[in-house]
Design a protein that fits this description.
heterotrimer, A mainly alpha (about 325), B alpha/beta (about 525), C mainly alpha (about 350), A: about 325 residues, ABC transporter involved in vitamin B12 uptake, BtuC, two-stranded antiparallel sheet, 2 strands, B: about 525 residues, Rossmann fold, seven-stranded mixed β-sheet, 19 helices, 25 strands
């Protein structure tokens, strides 16, 4: 069996085992409301993780995603107070995200800074800008302003038979992203630059352009995610995206998108996000303190990356032995 | 978005039309495909290719041989558009052509398969073959068409390949096939292979040869560059030998025999090594290797080297030479056998071996020899902190004196201690690395290709240093592909083949010709079979 | 003469000092408070904490790694030390044993990061970012979400009449130099000594410059890398205790996200984030620069949180400048060699 399939089955298997354990041990876990909520929570993270997957598969990483979400979120709420149509705001959110992604890509491909430092620094810039655009009262103190009750942006918080729009959007985006990565030349090129950048260049792939598109797509996903989340929350708290770059990386890594590039797909990111949020949700039901959330986030990344390192080493050894 | 169907490739339609327009024009089977006339090339005043006349026919395997630096790779690079020629004419299928870049060469049907393959490990065979030139409409790939096209190519050429196999699950031989298939998909009429068997096992090589035979029968021209005489006899219809930037001669199938070829490669004027006078052998200082084995690369290797002696290790790349000295040094962990220095067992730890007077100059200077960011001084003293420090504190005065002495003794230029080592010329980088070891009281120096990429003047300096060093009683074991170097410097040469010693030559009997023959598996009268 | 001056300003250190002088001049005009003695003290105190962390992270960056967990490490170290001090009723011995335990824990956490980085060949920034979250979460477990507040008289620990650890700004010793600044000076001196004078320092540069070479000359690269992460952990721990002492409280927000400041100091100081290049002098200059910038922003009443924006911009600008400076210096080096060749 292909190692890809095995890896996918491991992450889905773990997810199922976890769901079973939580359902048995908690009465409240497996009811429709909780699952719908879980899916809603996963969707916000999941959308960002899908964007992140594009960058990671292409051999990079985007540590600015959290800051970017904060910035786009506050700008979108501002637009809603100005009475802009909800659809337009969603569109604007996506475009703003793409713009941020484009700026990331400029520093990575043109100035050629190390990706994680450049995006980390840009993350600071975006979170700083968030405060500049934040709402203030007469004395200049930052206040929280909700999306106006009359704004059509609020309509995006709705649901179809209990399933929230954001969940549906998440699934649709995951499927589209999957198709893009597997069916288009852009997708093929993304895998090729993540797997072996030099050979890809030699085969006529425009590495910089593919990398740039990856960052832009990541920005678009983040923008979309945060607009929908803001609409759900009814406002955009200043920390709406804080830490989400890290959670998104964790989701990707758990699902099987290998840091370093070339492996995994948006479905991996989807499974990973679900895994992550299910774990949090289940543990919350067990009454574990919030502190465990952080510890688990870090722990999951360590365990998943170590697992992949060992798993990949073992697979290549096995394949080498078979080839000889 | 990335609609490239109109480029090099046939689109989906090509696959539907079947095999007849696949790659090679079978009608022109005997015609001359590529002809080069009077090619001339020089680099900063040094002529590297002179008056080269050369041709490859359709449906022939044409071998190109010559020592390192004979001009083979320059010629190939001119044909494939990496370099531009200074003078001369190129004809493809009788028409005069100018090849300015790789794409030009591709469009003319010339494809190279490099030693380090260009496949992407995470992609399938089909995806790799079409990478950069996908069958696609507005960026949407037609996966079915691509797969069918690859399948039809595989069937047409009778390759044993699965179009959906992911490359990193395939063995080297299959990867090579996929690479060849990629060339064929680009409608290659001339495929250039540069040492294709260097990372293949014997069985895998045989598979490759069958593939090459198949291609020839379908009318493709193949230019085969190799150092391995046995492969060349097995495969080639014609053989061109190069030496010192010139074409020495072209041999037809019947005329190819080991002695003729080696004589042509080396030149008739060079005889054996003139006796440079016996060197003193220090019998009380010796390195003894017994039954050494390492993975599948080394099998049961035995030898003894003495103080005062430069022991050359010859053989082809991949014969186990590098692994041998890395095992002695401790950089590779031997799987069996014993190594003794002066009767005492040698450790597996590099650290302890260095303290015992070992030194190692690796083959790849940039990857393993030099710390480019650090200055010359630090690059020299890096291995000698045991002598330059007490209680972990570096004695700065001693350190400076140590480095200055090495720079002076080994004539490193410019003589600036504080210069970043990465900015030195290749030869001076090598002197720096050598200085790192020679400045210690070494008992055993292991060298791997010590003069690659070093200009002639510095080369002679290095030879002198090594000779003096050995004369002072140390053991020198030197791996080299440079035959002249082995002949000039060695007191004894052991030639390796497939992880074993094949022949031994002693001073007075070492000739380039016999070394080359032995490396290719032909026993000679000069050597002693092992 | 003029040329020489221009060249001096153009050099890496020239640029840094010129920039600093320019900032001072601008501040002198914009905000005279900047030149008040008290202000210097607050700058120095801020630098003290940052500087100690910078020294620690420098070790990991030199070997080609990175430690993004320094902020969290500082936080947990402060929390543990103060928690134990609190449970012992804020006695000197309780405080000191708390410190010892806290630093030991940071040492272990650093070792774990180092082992993960070397043993499994994982990118250091991922491992240490994960470590940041693990440690940060653990702070809640230690403090239960509350701040540990020392009693009102502050945390001055005396042995006899001698003040061992004085917290209040302004210090309590005879020279009137704040204790944190003294600690900084000691840490800087030790780190500079280790990097410049000891074989361990030399080995770190070699490993960061080319790990293969280091291994082939008998340096145990992996062990040394783990050591670097341990040093980073301990120094972050010390910085945390210092910060908590100055703030008079320890909890989950102690030194939160300080790694951004540390990283900024690193790139401003010309430390090569790819490893093998940079030193204590540059890093401390970076810390000084960051301290002054932060101070300037406070004086100009730039909101604390907007400072992240400036931080990001400074990192990007410094990295971009370093990049071009490095390219330029390679060119200059080649010219130098060509000249020397001609002379020979």
């Amino acid at each position: 069996m292909a190692s890809k399939t095995i890896r996918r089955m491991i992450s889905i298997g773990l997810l199922l085992i976890m769901v079973i354990i939580f359902s048995i041990s908690s009465d409240v876990f497996l009811n429709f409301g909780n699952i719908a909520n879980l899916l809603k929570d996963s969707a916000y993270l999941g959308l960002i993780a899908i964007g992140m997957a594009f960058v990671i598969i292409g051999g990079g990483v985007d540590l600015s995603a959290g800051g970017m979400a904060c910035l786009v979120g506050i700008l979108c709420v501002r637009m809603s107070t100005m009475g802009l149509n909800g659809f337009l705001i969603v569109l604007a959110g996506v475009i703003l995200g793409m713009l941020c992604g484009f700026i990331n890509a400029l520093f990575v491909t043109r100035v050629k800074l190390t990706e994680f430092v450049a995006t980390l620094a840009l993350g600071f810039v975006y979170s700083g800008l968030t405060l500049i655009f934040a709402f203030r009262d007469d004395r200049g103190t930052i206040t929280s302003v909700a999306i106006p009750k009359w704004s059509s942006l609020r309509a995006f918080a709705g649901n179809v038979g209990g399933i929230f729009y954001i969940t549906i959007v998440w699934i649709v985006v995951a499927v589209i992203a999957y198709i893009v990565l597997t069916r288009t030349t852009f997708g093929l090129h993304t895998y090729s630059i993540g797997s072996h950048a030099k050979s890809a260049q030699m085969s006529g792939v425009n590495n910089d352009r593919i990398k740039m598109l990856g960052y832009i797509i990541c920005g678009a996903c983040v923008g979309l995610a945060v607009v929908l989340q803001a609409s759900l929350l009814g406002s955009s708290p200043l920390n709406i995206g804080s830490g989400y770059e890290f959670q998104a990386i964790a989701a990707c890594v758990v699902g099987g998108v290998v840091l370093g590039g070339g492996k995994g797909d948006p479905i991996s990111a989807l499974v990973g996000a679900l895994f992550f949020k299910t774990l949090m949700n289940g543990l919350y039901k067990f009454g574990l303190a919030t502190s465990w959330e952080y510890i688990l986030q870090g722990g999951i990344i360590v365990v998943a990356t170590v697992f992949d390192a060992v798993f990949n080493r073992a697979t290549s050894k096995r394949l080498l032995a078979r080839a000889q | 978005m990335e609609d490239r169907t109109d480029k090099t490739y046939e689109g989906a339609g090509g696959a539907e039309n079947g095999n007849q327009n696949d790659t090679v024009n079978t009608e022109a089977n005997d015609g001359v495909f590529l002809e080069a006339k009077g090619i001339y090339k020089q680099f900063s005043g040094v002529t590297v290719l002179e008056d080269a006349d050369f041709s490859v026919n359709c449906g022939e395997v044409h071998a190109l041989m010559g020592e390192n630096g004979a001009g083979k790779s320059t010629l190939i690079k001119i044909i494939t558009g990496v370099y531009t020629k200074d003078a001369g004419e190129l004809y493809v299928e009788g028409k005069s052509v100018e090849i300015h870049n790789r794409q030009d060469a591709r469009n003319l049907g010339i494809q190279v398969i490099y030693q380090e393959l260009s496949l992407i490990p995470a992609l399938t065979v089909t995806e790799n073959i079409f990478l950069g030139a996908e069958t696609a409409k507005h960026g949407w790939m037609d996966k079915k068409a691509m797969r069918e096209r690859v399948q039809s190519l595989i069937e047409h050429y009778g390759f044993d390949l699965d179009p959906d196999a992911v490359v990193d699950t395939m063995g080297m031989a299959k990867r090579q096939m996929a690479e060849i298939l990629k060339a064929l998909a680009f409608k290659a009429k001339l495929i250039i292979m540069d040492e294709p068997t260097s990372s293949l096992s014997a069985a895998e090589s045989e598979k490759l040869f069958e593939t090459i035979d198949g291609l020839r029968n379908r009318g493709a021209g193949i230019l085969y560059i190799s150092h391995r005489l046995d492969e060349v006899y097995r495969l080639s219809d014609r053989l061109t030998v190069m030496r010192d930037g010139k074409i020495v001669g072209v041999l037809k199938k019947g005329e190819i025999d080991p002695h003729t070829v080696t004589t042509m490669m080396i030149g008739r004027d060079v005889a054996g090594d003139e006796d440079k006078g016996a060197t003193k052998r220090y019998e009380d200082h010796w390195l003894e290797v017994k039954n050494l084995s390492y993975s599948h690369m080394l099998k049961d290797v035995n030898f003894t080297a003495y103080g005062g002696e430069i022991l050359g290790i010859g053989g082809l790349v991949g014969s186990g030479r590098t692994e041998l000295i890395r095992c002695i040094y401790g950089a590779a962990k031997r799987s069996g056998g014993t190594i003794m220095l002066d009767g005492k067992p040698v450790s597996r730890s590099i650290r302890r071996n260095i303290r015992n007077g070992f030194g190692y100059v690796p083959e790849d200077r940039h990857a393993e020899g030099l710390v480019p960011l650090l200055n010359v001084e630090k690059n020299i003293t890096i291995a000698s902190y045991d002598k330059l420090s007490s209680a972990s504190l570096v004695n700065r005065r001693k350190e400076i004196a140590w480095a200055d002495k090495a720079i002076k003794d080994y004539d490193i230029r410019p003589p600036m201690r504080t210069l970043a080592a990465g900015s030195l010329s290749g030869g001076n980088q090598q002197k720096t690395i050598l200085g790192r070891w020679l400045s210690r009281d070494l008992r055993l120096l292991l060298l791997d290709e010590p003069t690659v990429g070093v200009d002639v003047g510095v080369k002679m300096d290095l030879y002198r240093l090594l000779r003096e060093f050995a004369d002072n009683g140390a053991i020198v074991v030197m791996v080299s592909s440079d035959l002249a170097e082995l002949v000039y410097l060695s007191d004894r040469v052991l030639v390796m083949r497939d992880g074993r010693f094949f022949e031994e030559f002693t001073r007075g009997n070492i000739t380039q010709e016999s070394l080359l023959l032995a490396a290719s598996g032909v026993h000679t009268e000069e050597g002693m079979s092992l | 003469m003029m040329k020489k001056a221009i060249r001096a300003i153009g050099s890496a250190w020239g640029q840094r000092i010129t920039l600093l002088v320019l900032i001072c001049i601008v501040m002198a005009i914009a905000e005279p408070v900047f030149f008040k003695l008290d202000n210097y003290k607050s700058i120095l105190l801020a630098i003290a904490v940052n500087g100690v962390m910078v020294c620690g992270m420098l070790f990991t960056v030199l070997v080609g790694g990175m430690d993004l967990s320094v902020g969290a490490m500082a936080g947990i170290s402060a929390s543990i030390a103060y928690r134990i001090a609190e449970s012992s009723g804020f006695t000197t011995s309780g405080f000191l044993s708390g410190c010892a335990l806290a630093l030991a824990l940071c040492l272990v956490a650093g070792a774990v990061s180092g082992l993960l980085v070397t043993r499994f060949a994982l990118p250091a920034f991922v491992v240490t970012l994960a470590m940041k979250y693990i440690v940060y979460g653990s702070i809640y477990l230690v403090t239960q979400g509350f701040f540990v507040l020392p009693p009102a008289h502050g945390l001055s620990y005396q042995v006899g009449n001698q003040i061992v650890f004085s917290i209040p700004v302004g210090g309590g010793n005879k020279l009137n130099i704040p204790m944190p600044v003294i600690i900084l000076i000691i840490v800087v001196a030790i780190c500079a000594f280790v990097l410049v004078k000891t074989t361990y320092g030399r080995k770190l540069y070699a490993i960061g410059g080319n790990k293969n070479v280091a291994n082939l000359v008998g340096i145990k690269s992996n062990a040394n890398i783990v050591g670097a992460f341990m040093i980073s952990g301990v120094l972050a721990g010390i910085a945390g205790i210092m910060l908590a002492s100055m703030n008079g409280q320890a909890g989950q927000t102690t030194a939160l996200n300080y790694e951004g400041n540390v990283l900024m100091a690193m790139v401003v100081g010309g430390v090569n984030l790819a490893g093998g290049e940079g030193g204590v002098a540059g890093a401390i200059f970076g810390a000084l620069f960051v301290g002054i910038i932060n101070n300037v922003m406070v004086l100009l009443s730039v909101e604390a949180t907007i400072q992240t924006f400036v931080r990001g911009i400074v990192i990007l600008a410094a990295m971009t400048l370093n990049m071009y400076a490095r390219r330029g210096s390679t060119g200059a080096m080649k010219i130098k060699i060509a000249k020397a060749d001609k002379a020979a």
